Amino acid sequence: MMMTAITLSANAADNPFFKPFPDSYGIPPFESIKTEHYLPAFKEGIKRQQAEFDAIANNKKAPTFKNTIEALELSGTLLSDVSGVFFNLYSAETNKELSKIANEVSPLLSEHGDNLYLNDKIFNRIKILWDKKDKLKLAPDQARVLEKYYKNFIRSGAALDAAGKEKLRVINKDLSLAQLSFGEKLLADNNAFKKFIYNADELKGLPEGVITAAAEAAKKEGKEGQW
Asked: What pTM, to 2 d.p., does this model score?
């Protein structure tokens, strides 16, 4: 057990997602992020945000904008960081390793989302605030955020009965995998597309280096003299 703890601690220390990004603008340290960093960061991010959800749900104090809506809005920093980096990279330049991670993590994220939106305790706190919103004297931006949270919960199944919620969980899991599969096929189709230029006039305005590279690429495809 001690060796396992030491190993996990070392892995966490090497994972750029487990510490604040050093850039003053919050830009991720892409040069330090490795493929093996994503999955542990996803799992830890889900774990941390779930703990934040539980704290909100089990708060014994009466719901306020600060201890409910603002607390939800500020939760999940780690999960947001790793999701932003991973899915932008995955959608632009995926590979088999990233695809494997996406297939493993997508159902986890779907379940995580359901654990929020189908949480009766959290929804009840939001509904209490929504029902007395006119008496809360909220600023316009606060009122808008409260409205969005209430409607998002309703549209995500918060008002369903237990059977309806369980059915929705299955649908959401299947949908997350279907969306993933569609995205992979779309990206593969885009990457496989090739266009050959026959008329040099169409290349006017391009840098010479780009034109040369296009000619070399066409030559490798057996289309010498084209681009």
From this structure: 0.77
